[in-house]
Q: What sequence folds into this?
């Protein structure tokens, strides 16, 4: 009898075309769920017969309560090698193997710059005006050359963002809890003495920290008020790094010039969420990792994960 596998949250309907699933054809029945199921009862009803689940990033939380309601589950695969929405310990306690896939830092780096440039040159408003017959040239863009880019986090993605900032002739500075002057120098950037120092001196601030108990809410009211009224905040990392209520106040009251956002506390973003309509927000639907190349990695290696599990030798296990 074949195993049953469900691929969750395939918004674009490309999971099966992004990789070759044929090696599993005679052993696994694969089905795709395109709609995000926020209702727990509906989710359980849709996948309770499955032995294998493939989840995309952190779209669907897989906690202990959900795992307890999926007694047939044997293998859980997440895109990427880290997923804060999966309770790996609870899965292991129930005998469920959890595996991941590779994920490239290039796509989120590129999207960071799409947001930053879109904010600096008012791309959405100007493009909309051209399309709708509005005014010809209604804004004045912000320069990048000679301006300061502040990076909160200088890891795989932050380091790439820094390199591009230098190519734009920006003055790049960085801060993170464990960043040293030596490591900053390796990337050709200045090491800020602390987060308030970085925020106060930057024209553009981009967040690239891993979300943890220590970093959650790290950018709150005090930090946002420390920024320049002409400065922009870009977040392609995790929404939890920023106090959402404080950010709304900052945007509405003009503490900062605007924000480019790709991540939210609740996804999909509620239809009536003010972030959808604030004029100084450039909001995207969590596209940081959504590229053909990354999807090929995710689903191609998901197939490999299933094959290895069936062979009794799981690969890329999360612990």
A:
């Amino acid at each position: 009898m074949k195993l049953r596998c469900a691929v969750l949250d395939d918004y674009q309907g490309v999971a099966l075309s992004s990789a070759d699933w044929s090696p599993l054809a005679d052993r696994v029945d694969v089905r795709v769920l395109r709609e995000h199921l926020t209702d727990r009862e509906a989710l359980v009803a849709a996948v309770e017969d499955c032995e294998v689940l493939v989840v995309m990033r952190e779209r669907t939380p897989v906690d202990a309560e959900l795992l307890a309601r999926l007694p047939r589950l044997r293998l859980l695969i997440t895109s990427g090698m880290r997923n804060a929405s999966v309770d790996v310990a609870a899965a292991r306690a129930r005998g469920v193997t959890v595996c991941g896939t590779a994920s490239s830092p290039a796509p989120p780096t590129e999207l960071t710059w799409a947001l930053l440039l879109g904010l600096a040159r008012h791309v959405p408003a100007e493009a909309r005006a051209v399309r709708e017959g509005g005014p010809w040239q209604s804004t004045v863009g912000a320069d990048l050359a000679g301006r300061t880019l502040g990076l909160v986090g200088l890891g795989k993605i932050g380091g790439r963002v820094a390199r591009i900032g230098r190519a734009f002739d920006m003055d790049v500075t960085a801060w993170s809890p464990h960043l040293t002057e030596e490591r900053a120098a390796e990337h050709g950037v200045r090491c800020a003495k602390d987060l308030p120092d970085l925020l106060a001196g930057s024209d553009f601030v981009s967040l690239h920290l891993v979300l943890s108990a220590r970093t959650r809410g790290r950018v709150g009211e005090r930090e946002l008020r420390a920024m320049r009224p002409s400065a922009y905040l870009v977040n392609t990392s995790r929404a939890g790094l920023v106090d959402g209520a404080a950010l709304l106040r900052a945007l509405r009251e003009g503490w900062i010039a605007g924000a480019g956002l790709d991540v939210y506390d609740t996804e999909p973003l509620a239809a009536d969420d003010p972030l959808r309509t604030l004029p100084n927000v450039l909001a995207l639907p969590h596209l940081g990792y959504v590229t053909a190349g990354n999807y090929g990695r995710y689903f191609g290696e998901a197939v490999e994960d299933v094959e290895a599990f069936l062979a009794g030798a799981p690969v890329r296990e999360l612990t």
About this structure: The CA atoms of residues 74 and 96 lie 5 Å apart. The first strand starts at residue 3 and ends at 7. The chain is about 35% helix and 15% strand.
